[in-house]
Write a structure and sequence with these properties.
Layout (H helix, E strand, L loop, with lengths): L7 H18 L5 H6 L2 H7 L1 H14 L6 H10 L10 E3 L1 E2 L8 E2 L4 E5 L8 E8 L2 E7 L5 E4 L10 E5 L7 E2 L1 H36 L1 E2 L2 E2 L4 H24 L10 H26 L10 H13 L4 H13 L11
Helix pairs in contact: 1-4, 3-4, 4-6, 5-6, 6-7, 6-8, 6-9, 7-8, 8-9, 8-10
C-alpha cells in the first residue's frame, strides 16, 4: 500500500521541475528554487510523495544539498528553543557507529554543507545514555571537506570541543528525526541506483559483441534484472514505511529496515552495474564510479546496512517484536 496521494500527472510535472532544478544548481542552493516551486505546500499536502520525489531526483542527479537537514529539523524544532536564522544538523560520524558524541567529550560529526550561511548548529549528544540536543554557534568547531571515497559529496567532517550550553532532552524527537532521515536517504539511494542502472542498460544496449548487443546475452540480462528488482524492493519498503511515520516513534523500526534494504540494494546494483560495464566500469571514463561512491556514502549516513543488520538482529534477540514491514 502506498501512502502518497499524488496523482501520476502531478508527479510527472514535479519530477520534471526537480530535474531542471538539480541540473541548474547542482543541488547546493536549492532552498530558493524549492520555495519558488511552492514546495512547502507540496510537502504539507503529501509528505510521502514530496519527500520521495525530492530525494529520488537528488540521488539521480548526484546532487549534494542540505535538504536532509530540513527533514530532521521538522522533528527536532518542536523541542529546540526559537532559532536565530538558518540551522544545520550535525550528523553522527559513521566511524562512531552512528552514535552521537557524549556531552562531556569532544565533538565529531558530519555536515552536509559548509557553515558559511549557517547561523546555528544543532548537535545531538548523549547524556546518561539518552540523546539530547545542543544549539551552538558554528564558529566554535573545525570543519574539513570529506575526501577519499566520495570527494564530490560536498560534506564536511566536524571536530572540536563540545558546545557549551544546557542540553535539551530529545530522545523521542531524535528517534523520529532519524526515522524521517532514513526514509529520505532510502529514496535518494534509490535515485542513485536507478541512474546507475540506466547507464548500465545504455552501455549494454550499445556495446556489440559477436554481432549483437551484449544486453541480449542471458548473463547480462540476469544481472540487469536483479538490479531492477533490488531498486523496486526499496520502493516497496518505502511504501510500507510511510504509513507508520505518524506513530509515536516515527515508524522507527520500518524506517531502519527500509534503510537497511536500501543499503543492501545499492551494493547489489553497483556490483551488477560495474560487472556488465566490464573494464569501463573500473575507469574514470565512465560515470559508474560516481554512482558507486555516492551510494556507498549515503548508505553510511544514519546507519549503514551492516550496522543496521547488527542492531536489528540484537534487538530481535533481545525480544523486540518482529513487526513485518512488507508482506512476503
Amino acid at each position: 500500500m502506498t501512502s502518497t496521494t499524488m496523482d501520476a500527472a502531478t508527479a510527472e510535472l514535479l519530477t520534471g521541475s526537480l530535474r531542471e532544478l538539480f541540473a541548474g544548481s547542482a543541488g547546493r542552493e536549492i532552498g530558493p528554487a524549492l520555495a519558488a516551486l511552492g514546495w512547502a505546500e507540496v510537502v504539507a499536502e503529501d509528505p510521502a510523495g514530496a519527500t520521495t520525489l525530492l530525494f529520488t531526483e537528488q540521488g539521480r542527479a548526484l546532487a549534494s544539498s542540505p535538504a536532509l537537514d530540513a527533514v530532521l529539523l521538522a522533528e527536532l524544532d518542536r523541542v529546540l528553543p526559537a532559532g536565530h536564522g538558518t540551522r544545520a544538523v550535525l550528523y553522527p560520524h559513521p566511524a562512531d557507529g552512528d552514535r552521537p558524541s557524549t556531552v562531556d567529550g569532544p565533538v565529531r560529526g558530519i555536515l552536509l554543507a559548509g557553515l558559511d550561511s549557517v547561523d546555528e548548529l544543532v548537535v545531538p549528544v548523549r547524556v546518561d545514555g539518552a540523546v539530547a540536543l545542543l544549539t551552538a554557534d558554528p564558529g566554535g568547531v573545525t570543519t574539513e571537506p570529506v575526501a577519499g571515497f566520495d570527494g564530490g559529496s560536498g560534506w564536511f567532517t566536524v571536530t572540536g570541543r563540545q558546545p557549551s550550553g544546557t542540553p535539551v532532552p530529545a530522545a523521542r524527537e531524535w528517534e523520529r528525526a532519524v526515522a524521517a532521515g532514513r526514509r529520505a536517504l532510502a529514496a535518494e539511494i534509490a535515485g542513485v541506483c536507478q541512474a546507475a542502472l540506466d547507464l548500465a542498460v545504455a552501455h549494454t544496449s550499445a556495446r556489440v559483441q559477436y554481432g549483437r548487443p551484449i544486453a541480449s546475452f542471458q548473463a547480462v540480462r540476469h544481472r540487469l534484472a536483479e538490479a531492477h528488482v533490488a531498486i523496486n524492493d526499496i520502493a516497496s519498503m518505502l511504501d510500507a514505511a510511510w504509513p507508520v511515520a505518524g506513530n509515536a516513534d516515527g515508524g522507527a523500526w520500518a524506517a531502519a529496515l527500509t534503510k537497511l534494504r536500501a543499503g543492501r540494494a545499492q551494493a547489489e546494483v553497483m556490483r551488477h552495474g560495474v560487472q556488465v560495464l566490464g573494464a569501463m566500469g573500473l575507469t574514470s571514463e565512465s560515470a559508474m564510479h560516481s554512482y558507486v561512491t555516492r551510494a556507498g556514502a549515503l548508505d553510511a549516513l544514519l546507519g549503514g546496512h551492516r550496522l543496521l543488520s547488527e542492531t536489528t538482529g540484537r534487538a530481535l534477540l533481545a525480544g523486540a517484536p518482529a513487526d513485518p514491514v512488507v508482506e512476503v
